[in-house]
Amino acid sequence: MANFDLSTIRHSAAHVMAAAVKQLYPDAKFDIGPATENGFYYDFDMEHHLVAEDLKEIEKRMKKLIAQKIPFERFETSRDEAEKLLQGQNYKLERLADIEEGAPISFYRTGEYLDLCRGPHVDTTGDIGAVKLLSVAGSYFRGDEKNPMLQRVYGTAFATREELDSYLKMMEEAAKRDHRKLGTELDLFGFSDNVGPGLVLWHPKGALIRHLIESYWKEEHYKNGYQLLYTPHIGQSLLWETSGHLDFYRESMYSSMEIDERNYYVKPMNCPFHIEVYRSKLRSYRELPLRWAELGTVYRYEKSGALHGLMRVRGFTQDDSHIICTPESIEDEIAEVLRFSLAINRSFGFTDIKPYLSTRPAKAVGEPERWEKAIDSLRKAVVKCGLECEVDEGGGAFYGPKIDLKIKDAIGREWQTTTIQFDFNLPERFDMTYVGKDGQRHRPYMVHRALLGSLERFFGILVEHYAGAFPLWLAPEQARILPVSEAQLGKAMEYRDAMRRAGFRVEVDAESAGLGAKIRAARNERLPYILVVGEREAASGGIAVRSRREGELGAMPLDSLLKKMSEELANKTI
RNA sequence: GCCAAUGUAGCUCAGUCGGUAGAGCAAUUCACUCGUAAUGAAUAGGUCAUCAGUUCGAUUCUGAUCAUUGGCUCCA
To answer: Which of A121, A322, A370, A449 is catalytic?
Structure first.
């Protein structure tokens, strides 16, 4: 058997799925069925609304077709002939019309099933090792919400059964560490219908972790030459008219409130406020660069269907920063902001980081030379950090080029955290200037930067990365002391107080349950340290230590434990 | 916003082909005082998401609304 590319196998599996759907629902009209990163899908339009149960039947038929080892036969036709073959398949006909004049028009036949397709495909259906249908969802034709909605069936395929099984296992693992599930289980955060969708309530444990993240973030910013700002949650309409948000972004903003006959809007961004601080006085080139950061809470009206746990919410706190500098220092500034971003991402345990550069789109504001200089500085910064970046030509926003950082989590999924974006729009709109050496006014460069993205989202990523088992420095409860019986309760309190004085977050389990039950509870809460005090320890002055990472370590004096924990604290990733 | 599915106790879920609901865990109380993943018993806890309609009667059927989930779209 020939070795086929995974995407070829998956694309062929999509054809087989279409063939099976055609058998079951002869009225089905077909759109396209490509391979994706993790599998494949096919879009259909038909009377019958598919439900999960139907997928089993489709899958059964697919397996039958695969067992028959039906060959994939390719042939080319003229456009006229193709139109005849696709009669009644209006989506396919539209796709046919997309094919450029002169380009070959090819079909693939698999038994009774015929599909307009560029290929390539496997030799026979038998070359598809293992398939599994996963879900059914709606999807607009050509991804445009003005077009009709088609039914999309997602599936995945692998060359072997083993590979499919390990993929499904990974999916299971991902479901187990889902931050929404762990958020409830570990009582970290929640939502309330009375408050509203997409508005997060941070429960005490989650709030403590957030506090630890924020404190560290602030400290590092001061250490690295940033200044912190606080700005209001609302601002007058004039601000948003000047920034252009009301023109371009209004449908994503919470509607205005009238106070003293003036309209105020809840901020969807922090930038205009930082710019107002900049404009509060005449600025000299001598005070640039300015690095201003704020944990700024913003509100955006995200479409209801887009909300997803902590990953996509309506109220969130950006770890925002604006860097305002001269053209002369832009290169150094960008290199520095990238270095800092990488360092912070790494300190949260993310070591696999990839930059993505997006360049000038067709519609853009700002002088081309400025764009060139900006893109150049972004490129140089990446090289300086010893990384390589993928380039999305023309993928930048209209107001400037950017670099996004994507991190890989513990089970290999990519998440975008950091974004470093030039802005050629707002400095113009707000007429930001500084006085140069020459005594003349100049336009500064402005860079937006969010390191973690939003605290909500980053927290969600952290929960999934660590599967709820936070490293010692972030664990809301670092250790719990379990007295074996009530007789040791006093001793346990003594230990607890000593540990608290040493700066650790420690609780005593005073339940009248058995030791086994207490250990089980503490493990389920993923506590880094479980400490047992019984008669033996009370007598000897030590404490029995069980580490989440290292297992049972036996009894040791409290001082040794404190030393061990302090050392562990220094390494933020364990 | 669109397509589809789901919504029963704090959590995870049963259940009622229309006669107002049940388990396990968690909680509370009592007993037990225990040595490394669940001590026992009792108690309490629900307008069955909300609002309408049909019906003698609706958690169950119908409709609308809200929320959540999987996608699409969006993420100036």
So the answer is: A322
